[in-house]
Known about the structure:
Largest interface: A-B, 32 and 34 residues
Shape of chain A: extended
Order of helices and strands of chain B: HHHHHHHEEHH
Number of strands of chain B: 2
Distance between the termini of chain A: 81 Å
Number of domains of chain A: 2
Strand order of the largest sheet of chain B: 1-2
Low-confidence stretches of chain A: none
Helix content of chain A: 40-55%
Mean pLDDT of chain B: 85
Number of helices of chain B: 9
Strand content of chain A: 15-25%
Distance between the termini of chain B: 11 Å
Mean pLDDT of chain A: 88
Low-confidence stretches of chain B: 1-6, 217-221
Order of helices and strands of chain A: HHEEHEEEEEHEEH
Helix content of chain B: 55-70%
Largest sheet of chain B: 2 strands, antiparallel
Structural class of chain B: mainly alpha
Shape of chain B: globular
Largest sheet of chain A: 5 strands, antiparallel
Number of helices of chain A: 5
Oligomer: heterodimer
Amino acid sequence: MADPEARDVKRGPAYTVCFAVGVGVACAALLTAGRAMTAERRAENQRAERARSILHVLGIPTTVRTERIDPETGRTIVTERQADNDEILKRFDRSVREQPLAGRTAYWTDDAVAVPFTGKGLWGAIDGFVALAPDLKTVRRVTFYKHSETPGLGAEIETPVFRDQFRGMPVAERAGRVDLDIQAITGATMTSRRVEAMLERTLAEVLAAEGGDGG
Amino acid sequence: MAANVPNPAAGMGGERKGILTFTAGVWRNNPIAIQVLGICSALAVTTRLENALVMGAAVVFVLLMSNLLISLARGAIPRRIRMIVEVAVIATFVILVDQFLKAYYWDMSKRLGAYVGLIITNCIIMGRAEAYALHERPHHSLIDGLANGLGYAMVLACVGLVREVFGSGRIVFGRAWVLLEIPGYEPNLVMKMAPGGFIALGLLVALFYALGLQEETEGES
């Protein structure tokens, strides 16, 4: 093979510039095509993910149950699977209505309201929903639908073990502050503390807004 | 640089060279176990077997594409900007993988998080482009990419298997497809956390050396 240095000298700097531009254009074209081809699916996944999170926090099932009777034993066999995107969005439209609460869009059913919250996690923003009883005095559930916490550590906030502790937690307000008592995750103290802080702040805002106008 | 390195496969017939290239990537010069490259992702995404397999597949794809394209263009790439060209090619395919996962494998995309994007900075891929694809013909470069990708994926899968089994006592794919479950196993958080990754990976590296798989590559690095 020819000496690459000598080869470059012979070709001159204009060649290098043209080559760089060519590579740039080719890569950009590939990326644009890739984005365009997946844009629809990605947007739909995101929309469905949000709807799934809201349904879940409101206690509406996000699974599909099918029952069939075994012809041999006569017993009922129940199988359950996660609902796909279409089913989730349909269920969402059917059972949830959007109505503002404390300056943000909240999602209501007859027996709960889901309030979106956001805050800083360890690596990036954490977005989620907290569902309250209609009187806003008890937490029903909490979900996190978008975060970039460490898998296996901070990301454990998604697990039922962490989230189930919020069920039925009283929202007690004292002097404009809400104080929640949350069990942190081992190895994810920062994430746990920040989650606690963002929930307390959100709930305080909700109570302040609702208490103020007598709602 | 590479011109001075004694290459055991130099001057050999194409087929023999292909086989040597393959075994080097998978065993004798395994990128993680022998060269100890790219262990950031090997530690981070191996809490579950499924994550490790998908990450391995992503790296195989990126390595194949970058090795192939760099090798095809090796006569045309100006030497001074070769690294920039390599990074541009690698980054393009990593982003394509990321978009693909976001569109068709949403759950996994969420679990792997930033680590898919971080394949761009994985030294194995740029290392293969620099050390191999820049000097070798496309079909050998493809074999090299495949072998190194498989070598990486294999180590990740082993670490993922050990950590998932000892960490949670079971192996789960997808949302609820349980492959294995040890009844009554008490989850062992250490294996899920960073120390578990180091322990499992360290044992695996020790195993590679204990088996003497590195010997033939002495002097190649």
